[in-house]
Amino acid sequence: MRSNNITLKDIASLLNISISTVSKALNDSSDISEATKNKVLEIADSLNYKPNFYASALRNNRSLILGVLLPDLTDSFFLESLNGITEESLKNDYKVMVYQSCNDFKKEVAYAKLLSESNIIDGLIFSSTKKVIFSKKENHITSFINKGVPVTYINKQNRVSVNDTIKERGYEIGQDCVKELLSKINHVNISA
Length: 192
Fold this sequence. Notes:
The protein is about 55% helix and about 10% strand.
């Protein structure tokens, strides 16, 4: 067996136990004896078992992926914001899927549509190339809201004061956007 394709079923077969027992042992359930847990963990470790990310996402109804749609990563504010977004996401076991519109509204709409239709992200951090984004004509972001996907808007002009340096504030603002978005995501999941 190849180590990157090891499944719960494989471990269960090797130990002649049920798949649910393997799952419970790997999740440290109190329903399983310490001896069984140790056997499962030993086999899983020797086979270099890694949980299937997609199976876990389906089971938990979360992808653990945040979408990020920014206009221009050559702009130091957005680059530093992305650094803050990435670091804060990682601290919270999330990954980021980043799209850059290159200040092109058509690309922004296309990427937003791609992310919305793919149903792969748990939330979106977004900055538009236009100043007014919630018009009736331009509903590429409201499609996320209508689906119950939380959105956090990052706005360079409103969030950076004259006395702050863009580099310092961009990183911090990126972190704050993730915290705000995760709060919204957790609220949606609790309400569901």
